[in-house]
Amino acid sequence: MLSLAAQLLFYSSIFAHNLFAQRKIEDVHVSINLQDVGLRQVLDEIESLTEFSFFYDEGIIDHKKRISLTIQNRPLSDVLGEVSIQTGLKFKQINEVISVAAYRPADDPQAQAVKDKITVKGKVTSVEDVQGLPGVNILIKGTSLGTVSDVNGDYSIEVPSSESVLVFRSMGFVTEEILVGDQSVINVELLMDLTALSEVVVVGYGTQEKVNVTGSVAAVKGREISEIPSATVSNTLAGRLPGLVVMNRSGEPGNDGADLSIRGFERPLVIVDGVEMDFSRLDPNDIESISVLKDASAAIFGARAGNGVIMVTTKRGSAAKTKVQVSTAYGYQGSTVYPEYVDAAQYMKLVNEYNEGSYSEEEIAQYQSGELKSTDWYAATFRRTAPMLRTNLNVSGGTDKARYFVSYGFLDQQSILNSGDSRYMQHNVRSNININLSKSLELRLDLAHRNEERNYPDASMENIMSNVAFSRPMFLAEFPDPSFPSHNGFSLIGPNYLSKRDVTGYRDGVIRNSTANIALRYQAPFVKGLTAQAFVNYTTDDQRQKNWKKNYDFYDYDPDTENYTKRVGATTEQITLNEFYKRSYRITTQFSLNYEKSIGEHSVKALLMNENIDLGGYNMQAGRQGFTNSFVDQLFASSAALQFTDGRAYQDARVSLIGRVNYSFRDKYLLEYTFRNDASPRFHEDYRWGFFPSISAGWRLSEENFMSGISGLDNMKLRASYGQSGYDAYD
Predict the structure, then answer these.
(1) Domains of the chain
(2) pLDDT class for 377, splitting at 50, 70, 90?
(3) C-alpha angle 547-549-554 in degrees, rounded to nearest 5
């Protein structure tokens, strides 16, 4: 019998730049008692008992092979040695990952062919950072012979002949095949596989491997979003998720978020880290992934899922050395289409067609000859582009005991108004921390705060655009003395002055949003696969708005006399100040049980959860009119006889019972059932509860033997689903 050293190829090393040493498999002791089980169940058992995970090619797994182990408190290396003897596989440790590869004894025909061997050496690196890649599987195509790259990415392998083809395969990278030929040194650069990196997707109250999802779920990685220079997350999703419709609104800074709909329905439910909230103002650099749940996949959210669900997951730290990332994007925003207006001569001719004689030929000729200048009101009011700056600094890292992700982001967005009096600034702070209090108990603490500042002229962007459209090009946008505001020819102040805060007033606002999540996750040692979690979220939102409407005059100008004459009725009636304050809160509590069990080629996952939501708030406003001047923009500066006040409060709540069961056989035949029992106070007590079930099934055809001969087909799946969801936004 071959010795253990021949059966196993173990390798344990420490990265030179790592802050924390890796444990060797010889130092980890385990106890296992499994009889007549498959290899996958053995590996799952080891993963549950240790901090190691296995990496292997599905093709080397013999599902018919049965394994029996009875081991008490022995090193993991001994356990893997016994598995190696029973299966003919070899194992190699690369930090916290154990690579599994096929091994044939020396008398195997494939091994005998190596006696006329050629030794090939080289290094495997990543295209992105040209760093050595450890743990890359290098196989001789058509055989089970191979090796694994070391901690620096170096490898050495003996091949039968120059006709051999080496296959380089690593999780998260595109597989490469290279003919040996007359080469003795083959260096390989692997390209990152974005498809492989998105194999796990977020679904309702959990995650699933993408290949095992039976419902309609689309996902996008946060990296794709952060690369787009946009002020809002909602705008970055345009064209990136099938079935998601993105409709842009106002171009006003801070109000330019898009309206989202799934397959044309109304606004969907948005869940961020398990809690309902608006996500458009999240910092894109904080987002790990976004999933869109459609059809029956959304039914687990019950009475709020009628328009679909968008799931957002923020980034978290990992057990690795501290990483600092700084990103800054400076760009310009502008209209995709610029309106073209007629000049003064064209305008006068068009008016004459409708109302003959309104303008004489002499008047028209003055503009055609250039004696009098035509006004482009759009150019007088708007500039082509407006600058935008986004900066983010984040720090992440940790150990096997604690992991962290801390981020600060800043956004400064200006508008295309020539006045420069419209601006939006945003500050985001986030801290996501995971702490392993013990081997079975984990604490998750997430804190986030967002501060938004909006500064606008009194007139909205829509009003300014409307004014531009109705302005006559025969009238000057600005007089020789610009302190006298011009008009647009229709007894309205010119749009270029309407957009100035010092002329018409302002609309300012501040929003402060804070959220805190705390979760305790307990892995029950007495029931393998059972996990309990308690989760609490508290979110507050404070909004303050101040609207100061000034009175203003606009004038006519006589170029012959250089006199300015105030237009009749130009002065607004009263100076008005209105202040508004709103405060709201949301408390979400979740208590859940998760259970996972694998028996041979069967796998079952189950979830049972109770969710309670309590939300409410109040708002108030006060205002005064009749200010004698526009120098003091405070309520005390006007008479109490011309004041008004208002206010109101609201409260809402929900109670839910949620469940899900997933069944998988050989990772080919998939079945999922979910339900949600929702109680909403928006309905009469006799109809307060609603039951929302769903069922879905999938068949991974690409895993069947009769599909193995089809090249280029990695994942083919038939699926069907049925579910019910509700929409309780209306009484």
Answers:
(1) 1-103 (3.55.50.30), 107-197 (2.60.40.1120)
(2) very high
(3) 150
